[in-house]
What does this fold into?
Amino acid sequence: MVNSPKETVRQFLLQVRSGQHPDRAAEFMAERVRAHQVVAEAPTVVERTPGQYAEHVQEMLDAYGAFSLTVDELIAEDDRVYARWTQVGRHVGPIDEYEPTGAELTEIASAVYRVENGLIVEYWIQIDRHGIRAQLAR
It folds into this structure.
């Protein structure tokens, strides 16, 4: 049985994006996923496989340690699911030009996921990068 788009995204966030089980990415993602990275006036699109996404989550674990992820909002309509979450970790690895401080870091992010046949095929993500940089500069 194929999960609803909303349940697919919920489980993806709680199991994979949370850093709990990044190795389970293939259960929730298509073989190729278009990732629209909204970065101010320079948006980019990358294509990721589930394996590459798992590596991306490992990079977050290397930078933030074992972080917590709370899903603050989840709204679904047809094949689109909007998710907003709060991630709290510690600065345990280098982030940009900032060396680890051990300080607590909070990331607030949101994304719209497009789901087909129970798998994420595309997403548009926005992260409060300015907020992260402000915390790193303290």
